[in-house]
Amino acid sequence: MTTIAVLVGSLRKDSYNLRLAKSVERLAPEGAEFVYANLNLPLFNQDLEADFPPEATALKQLVEGADGVLFVTPEYNRSFSGVLKNAIDWGSRPWGQSSFAGKPAALIGASGGALGATQAQAALRNVLVFLDTKLMGQPEVYFNALTGFDENGELASSAEGFIKAFAEAFVKHVESSSAAK
Ligand SMILES: Cc1cc2nc3c(=O)[nH]c(=O)nc-3n(C[C@H](O)[C@H](O)[C@H](O)COP(=O)(O)O)c2cc1C
Fold first, then answer.
1. pLDDT of residue 178
2. CB under 6 Å to ligand 1: residues?
3. How many of the other CB atoms lie within 10 Å of CB of 1?
4. Which atom, in ligand 1's list, is nearest to the CA of 9?
5. Of 13, 36, 75, best ligand 1 pocket probe by most atoms within 8 Å of the beta carbon
6. Distances from the Cα of 78 to the Cαs of 20, 117, 130, 163, in angstroms?
7. What region holds the NADPH-dependent FMN reductase-like domain (predicted)?
8. pLDDT in tens, 111-126
9. Is residue 180 predicted with pLDDT exceeding 90?
């Protein structure tokens, strides 16, 4: 079993990005288990590092126990969401004990427009490289939620192919990175 920790950077109940993550999960090869992190965390405060909040510890444990991490981000003001940055900041601490270092990872994102969280993903990619994740380069998916989901909120048939290709490439990336350890 290959375990994937999923970090969805939106707390919105009907989040496009959560729907996108669930679509990736549905189209992933058998044997991959997706576990969704709780990102409803206290605001990062370095004063709290000596006594980590339990929710932040749970996030670190989830990531450390997973074979790979999938980051799913909305675009807020041309960057990735504060919710996701906050979670990444917790997971990266204390100094020298980042949960992300060496983890096979990929990113994907949706927004309600044709640009499909392009700028958010570019900014997030920079952070994930700095954190020394083993980041999948291709394929990239910039997901337009207005055309990518149908009127029932399901993945549009036109999007099935490229989301399946992304899911397959990601799980392969995780499994080959883990085997190479
Ligand atoms: C504060 C804020 C800023 C936003 N900025 C952008 C933006 O820069 N680019 C964009 O494509 N969409 C932007 N949006 C629209 C989001 O893409 C849209 O709200 C989307 O549904 C968020 O993802 P979610 O459905 O997973 O919550 C913004 C939305 C909010 C609330």
1. 74
2. 10, 12, 15-17, 74-78, 111-113, 115
3. 7
4. 26
5. 75
6. 19, 8, 19, 23
7. 3-144
8. 998 899 999 999 999 9
9. no
